[in-house]
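Before we proceed, please read the two lines closing this message. Report back on whether the structure tokens fit the sequence:
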Amino acid sequence: MGKYFGTDGFRGEANVNLTSEHAYKIGKFIGWYYGARRDRKARIVIGKDTRRSSYMFEYAIVAGLTSAGADAYMLHVTTTPSVAYVTRVDNFDCGVMISASHNPFYDNGIKLINSRGEKMDDETTNAIEAYLDGDMDRLGLSGDVPAATRESLGEIVDYVSGRNRYVGYLISLAAHSYKNMRVGLDCANGSAWNIARTVFEALGAKTFVINAEPDGVNINRNAGSTHIDALRRFVIENHLDVGFAYDGDADRCLAVDENGDVVDGDKIIYIFAKRLKKEGRLAGNKVVTTIMSNFGLYKALDEEGIGYEKTAVGDRFVYENMVQNGYRVGGEQSGHIILSKYATTGDGILTSIKLMEAMLDSKQTLSRLCMPVKSYPQVLKNVRVSDKAAVRENGHVQKVVAAMAERLGDTGRVLLRESGTEPVIRVMAEAKDERLAEQCVNEMIDAMKAEGLA
């Protein structure tokens, strides 16, 4: 990760450590950068979520782009996967999504997407960071990037048609009518607030929607995939067949079955993998998970004879593994699910459509489809430390971790993971018994404290 850009863009609190000046300079740089590389006007497409600050950042980025001679195409409020789709399909040089995903409203972020609809490469973000820091020598520039004048100024184009085409694409992926299906949607007062309802109603579902009244400050507030209890109650009270919860920019989806039980990303991966294998379409007979996926998922995949890869946490790493090996299904427990035949990013609405297809094809309820996955109790505690590397390298701590792993054997696992954004070590254990998992976590934390590391 760089100084500003992490695994999911440049993220921070609006007007604190992510400012409109940052946004303007990012727009100005990429407007010049892509124009200079292509020897023509750059074409950049921009979307945003419903945060109050998203409008400020949108206008700042567009000002930067057009001042550098790039044409800015505005999708307005839309989802991250829609920006990736439009960037790829409509041959844009770059896409920009303004969102802090599942974070509270006062945070925001700038996500950059390359011309293939993928998260931006490190080489480009490193160049942007050099520009933000005024390091012109590193960029081979004698001064600031040149400003456009007269007819070389960039144009601003209202590109709602691109967003509408994405909606049409989602609808086209359904092979069934959803008539007589009672579907709940929790839109997190975010990017999905209008798109999700449009898609499901077009497919004939009896659609029940909550948290679809964004006001700029209620995005993710007790809503969406990170606060799923509201949807669980909603499904039960309204006797729904299924419910889907999205996060702020709708690149995640968690589901709720007809009983009100949560179907997380691990169970969704299992459903998709099993279905594709049955159809002979599971490339490499493998799925891609992260190190945080539940032990119960791996047990269920083993029973089906399906292999798996494990990556670092982050949908970027999942996608890179999928591309390198040609795999078709991957994702995270949190609901970032990537179906590489259809998308280059996690796409919450796409995930929910494909779950509906699995239910209708099999004529089974969602609870029945994921029943073989018996999620192990998981205990996770965050421990603040002064030196994350010292924990990783400490012999006593690692000895205790190894002892806990040996105690659990093939009935669970333990994990120490460094946070990518905080001075925190995440201590996790999974076991068939929650008390045993709690005990393992506590013993690992005690070992860190005994060494003066926590």
